[in-house]
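Notes to self, Response regulator:
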Amino acid sequence: MFNVLLVDDEPFIVDSMFNMLERSDRNELLLWKATSASEAMAIMQENRIDILITDVRMPGMNGIELVEQVKKHWRNCKVIFLSGYSDYEYLQSALRHDAFDYLLKPVDDDTILETLQRGILEIEAELQTHDVMARAEIQLQKAQNLLQKEFVESLLTSQPPAAITIESQLRELQIPLLPDRSVIMMLGRVDRWPQDYSPKDKLLLQNAVHNIVEEYLHRICRIQSFSESRYSVWFIQVDEPDSPEEDQAKIQDPVKLQWYINELLEKIQQSIRHYLRLPVSFVLSKPDVEWGQIHQAYHSMRELIQRGIGLDEEIILVEQADDMQVRFGGPEWMSQDVRKHINQLLSLLESGNGPAFRLELTRFFQLAQQSVFLDYAFQLEIFAHLSAMFLTYMNARKLTSAIENDPGLDSLAHYGKHANWPALETYFLRLADRLLSLAEGERKDQKKEIIDQIDAYIVENLNRNISLSHLAKRFHLSPFYLSRLFHAEKGISLSDRTKMLKISKAMELLLAEGIKIQEVALELGFDNVPYFTKFFKKNVGVTPLEYKQSNSQSMK
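result:
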């Protein structure tokens, strides 16, 4: 839809153009008409104008002056001038005002339509060019962000290039940092993400964290944020004020700036927790990190936040942490202590005692976190012991494939995948629940299979020795365990099941023609008829002979 405004002080001309264009079906047009510049101005102020067709000479404000006003509001508007005067002065003035075309009155309908069509095509071409440029701008920005990320990662992980290269990189990548000044580095870590957050959600919230930090600090210093792996990194520099008004806001002493930022960090944490519902920890470097020391400072800060993992969430640390280590050191843990607890955990896990295992594992993590500055290598040792314990249990029972994705086998091999120790504890508890559930299901299947085999053996061997001791030896179980297991699976004791099967078989055989009672007794494993008769009468209420005779008469 294109918006067209027609302006001429002669009502007949403007009405004629309006009616002609309204009848035309070449384009979708929204038409307005005015018989004076002031009326046209009122329409223009409330509606977008894509094409203006206006007379040049009008009383009061003329067409040239009207165009000047329209262009202030709608600078991309295409202007077509109409005039009954072909003098050079008006043509030159129209061209200076970027007229799309200049038509001499009287002008026929086809000429107006053709000129209008060219104007619409040019607008469409400009829109398409604008879209292409906008997409190119987005792609350029994405490339710029990627190049910035690569540059910063090189600073964080290796010896930086020469100072002149750093200067050119900062300039070309439009990073607002100065190569001749030291930096204060700040490392941030989201301690715990909600489980239902997607990678896109996390990226958006990480950017929101950057925005909150910069909102607090940008008035007092230069600051640039970057995302790296699991961490956010900020480079901060003292900054010269741009105006006398900024002189009081900018802090130009690096030591004072570091102190001031440290004072603000608790407020920043509170804002992030309030607005984003996220716990975030920060580590602040010394106030004078040179460009050549950035990778060393970054390594030190990562190690510090990893060593301080026992503080749980929302840590605020400074790079020199010796005083904090003395203050919060806590009891020292030794390797033998870890192995002792691991052996207890493994014993509970193998026994299938889920509640006791969960209680012991929780206690294990509580003890570990009493030492705030637990050496990172020792953390890895503890993680390795726990991982080995679970892997040993899984491999012995062939359960690894069952937990490949849930709760995730990969997290059992990489310590860095866990944000902090509470997250690690939650993972191991979920893993234990899953394994114990799988093992319990497997045990139930095994028990059922064993009892079904024993029951089938009894049915097929009623004439042989099927005593509890004989069955226990045959199936390699203790008599007590076999008796208890059979009752649990079948809901009936082993002796009652055997008795029931023998009575049922005896009643079946006694009704068979030509079979003597003595033969039935032998078939069921009884050595003499009197003992069989006593057994049968006790459980059926009649002797075998009475049962046979009674049923024989009823069948006649």
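- The two ends are 102 Å apart (CA to CA).
- The chain has a mean pLDDT of 80.
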